[in-house]
């Protein structure tokens, strides 16, 4: 029997489509050093799970490489198709990937692994990967060492309190050692884009309309006064290889 927490998580995992345009406008990309660490240059087939509007996908494109996106939300897939019409997109989830066994070099998941059921998604990623292939997971987190970013987090934090715990991934055999590395960088942005970034968060999308508007007004008051031109991020990266056959 699903608990109220499970039902809330499932509702939030399905919520992104309602804010697909704001997602595309406000969310950051991923710095090139992090992408190189997550996906080796020689990877020929890369599967991007929970690809959303393609924020990570566009950084994966490279001559001679096939990138395949997997995304359950129809609205996110529509937004993705506007930006990356040439990329193959599958309407599916991390738990059931409609690809053959041993067909990918890397399965990567950006800002989405906390929405999946790892007990199904880990064996599914292992099935799709070739022996020696890699599962790579990444999250952009705001760098709260900047005082105004700490204040933004204070406004958002009670809605995101489950975030940190959910993000420490646990991978198990057939995957080997989980490696971790952080990358600090700044994403060029504007006060308007920061409001879009906040509006595209599942905890905000699923709020009651009046409370949501009040929250967005508080964020606007903060960022309009501050006038930031960039958002500092720490990009948290994890990778683990599936044992060679
Ligand atoms: C925060 S967005 C991340 C989008 C994109 N990867 C990025 O880096 O911006 C999370 C995405 O995960 C998708 N998602 C939710 N549950 C999923 C699941 N079980 N399997 C795969 N994707 C899922 C959502 O529809 C949403 O597009």
Please describe what this structure looks like:
The protein has 245 residues and is of the alpha/beta class. The protein has a domain at 4-140 and 164-184 and 232-241: Vaccinia Virus protein VP39 (Rossmann fold), CATH 3.40.50. Helix content is 39%, strand content 23%. It has 11 helices and 7 strands. Helix 7 packs antiparallel against helix 11. It starts with a helix and ends with a strand.
What's this model, at a glance?
By secondary structure, this protein is of the alpha/beta class.
What fold name stands as the CATH topology of the domain at 4-140 and 164-184 and 232-241? Rossmann fold
Radius of gyration: 18 Å
Looking at the overall shape, the CATH architecture of the domain at 4-140 and 164-184 and 232-241 is 3-Layer(aba) Sandwich
Beta-strand portion reads 15-25%
Write a concise keyword list for the protein shown above.
245 residues; alpha/beta; Rossmann fold; seven-stranded mixed beta sheet; 7 strands; 23% strand; binds S-adenosylmethionine
Helix-strand layout with pairing:
Layout: H1 4-13, H2 20-26, H3 32-38, E1 45-49, H4 57-60, E2 66-70, H5 74-83, E3 88-90, E4 104-110, H6 118-128, E5 129-142, H7 147-157, H8 163-167, E6 179-188, H9 191-199, H10 202-205, H11 209-226, E7 230-241
Parallel strand pairs: 1-2, 1-4, 2-3, 4-5
Antiparallel strand pairs: 5-7, 6-7
Helix pairs in contact: 2-9, 7-11, 9-11
The structure holds S-adenosylmethionine.
S-adenosylmethionine binds next to loops.
